[in-house]
Specification:
4-stranded antiparallel beta sheet, 16% strand, 10 helices, Heat Shock Protein 90, single chain, elongated
Length: 432
């Protein structure tokens, strides 16, 4: 459902509801007017007619009951209601009455004076005629005016919001990475874009232009940083490897060299992770089909130098290999961070990398974490366990961000003094 289509429908629904509410109020009003006409105005007319008749009878005792186009009157002895009095009127006591339609449906007023009883009948046909002319005809006119005004207002509202709908359509077609803002240039705007909509269009044009420049700068930075940062690290690594072959190095210098090499490997991993995360929604790396076991073998070999001098066994167990379609370097960075974290915090025992059907686990026998530390373990720069260990406290934060980016859920279980188990699940894995 398009947003601009929804806006049109909402406006139309609002005016339909408005017209329906006004129509209902008009119908109720006319019905009330009919009731007033029937029970107040006609009763008052009958009462005045009776008063006029009794006054005329006082002046002329032989005056006959009214008999006009709209009204019929009967005068009878209040003690003897037989004679010319219709049967349907004989049982009516003094007061106002409404006869059922089977008996003519007339409105009747009965009044006694000086031993005589006067019956005045207002004909139902006239009541219906008055109800129509004073009720239905005005109702039809009111409803016609209401519908005409509602339609005109809807058309005017539609024209008023059409620039906003057009603007929403333009923004909806934007590519988030490369928004095309040419349609929002002042010379390309429709003539009906004015006022607040014109201000909004100009602001969006400026904002999208800044986004385009920002994306371009970010792309250039990522490209340049990928080259410039790796070059000195390569020099450091090669120089370190050459120095390692020097048999004249003292034990202290060799320990320092090991720390330099370890820090260099950590820096390479961090730089690669940052370059991957620098692109919003796009790592810049191509998707490929690869076997997870092969990537894990490479990561195990990269992690072995981290355990030099430690009584820790590093193992790879491939119980059920599987394939993925994704950038293999992303999986390398993700698992590499988990392995480095396990190696840093394990002084004795073993670190086991296990590949199962659609699952990778990294289990260690390190210092472990309590529940409070486990709850914060994915926060940037948070370091659980022994804080004297080397590390920057951002490895697991990188793991979480990469797992969220690719839909590979990561879970952690840990117990102080007994180690930690990290689990990565791959819902879209291809199992052979």
């Amino acid at each position: 459902m398009s947003q601009h289509g929804g806006l049109r429908r909402k406006i139309w629904a609002a005016f339909i509801l408005q017209a329906a509410a006004i129509s209902f109020a008009a119908v109720v009003g006319v019905y009330g007017a009919s009731a007033v006409l029937k029970h107040v105005l006609i009763q008052r007319a009958l009462q005045e007619e009776a008063t006029h008749f009794w006054g005329r009878r006082d002046r002329d005792p032989g005056a006959e009951a009214p008999d006009t186009y709209n009204m019929t009157g009967y005068l009878a002895d209040a003690t003897n209601l037989s004679g010319e009095l219709p049967e349907k009127l004989r049982g009516l006591p003094p007061g106002f009455h409404s006869l059922p339609r089977a008996q003519g449906g007339s409105l009747v007023m009965v009044e006694d004076r000086d031993g005589m009883r006067l019956y005045l009948l207002f004909k139902q046909e006239q009541v219906d005629s008055l109800a129509f002319w004073f009720g239905m005809a005005p109702l039809a006119l009111v409803l016609a005016v209401v519908y005409l005004i509602a339609w005109s207002t809807y058309r005017a509202s539609k024209r008023a919001v059409s620039p906003v709908i057009w603007l929403a359509g333009q923004v909806q077609r934007w590519d988030p990475k490369h928004p095309d803002v040419s349609a929002l240039k002042p010379e390309n705007l429709p003539v009906d874009v004015e006022g607040e909509t014109l201000t909004l269009a100009q602001s969006l044009h400026d904002f999208a232009s800044r986004i385009g420049h920002f994306v371009e700068r970010e792309h250039n930075f990522t490209r340049d940083a990928s080259h410039e940062l790796r070059t000195p690290l390569t020099v450091i690594r090669v120089a370190g490897d050459m120095m390692e072959g020097d048999a004249a190095l003292s034990p202290m210098s060799r320990r320092s060299l090991k720390r330099i090499q370890s820090a260099g490997r950590d820096m390479e991993a961090l730089i690669e992770a940052f370059l991957i995360l620098a692109r919003e929604g796009d790592t810049g790396l191509p998707d490929e089909d690869f076997t997870v076991g092969e990537v894990m073998r490479d990561e195990i070999e990269k992690a072995r130098p981290l355990l030099t001098g430690k009584p820790v066994e590093l193992q790879l167990a491939i119980e059920h290999d599987f394939e993925l379609r994704a950038p293999s370097r992303v999986l390398s960075v993700l698992v590499g961070n988990l392995l480095r974290n396990a190696c840093h915090y394990t002084d004795a025992g073993r670190v086991v990398l296990t590949v199962k059907a659609g699952v990778i686990t990294v289990q260690d026998t390190g210092v472990g974490m309590n529940d409070e530390e486990l709850a914060k373990v994915f926060e940037p720069f948070y370091r659980a366990g022994d804080r004297r260990k080397d590390g920057q406290g951002i490895g697991l934060s990188i793991v979480r961000r990469l797992s969220d980016r690719y839909g590979w859920p990561v879970g952690m279980e840990s117990e102080p003094g007994r180690g930690t188990t990290a689990t990565i699940s791959f819902p879209s894995a291809s199992l052979p």
